Amino acid sequence: MKTVHLLGVVPFAGILGGVFFANRVTPYVLGMPFILFWLVMWVVLISATMAVIYRLDPANRTALAEPGPGPEARPEPQPQREERTS
To answer: Which of 3, 24, 37, 47 has the fewest C-beta atoms lying within 10 Å of its C-beta?
Structure first.
């Protein structure tokens, strides 16, 4: 496991560990009870964290630096034949 993948633990800890910490109704944030705001905030932060992991992963750097063949160079998908057993 790469160290950059350890960032994936942060949202897990934020949602599951933070629920015990943020389990209250007040204060209202953006008209939502605090616990609902906490969960919505972590849904947004999960997307940001996964984007950071994607950008920092060296395996994705080579894929971004070397563009592959365009859509016109890809072979057309062949229709699949159905096998009949009668």
So the answer is: 3
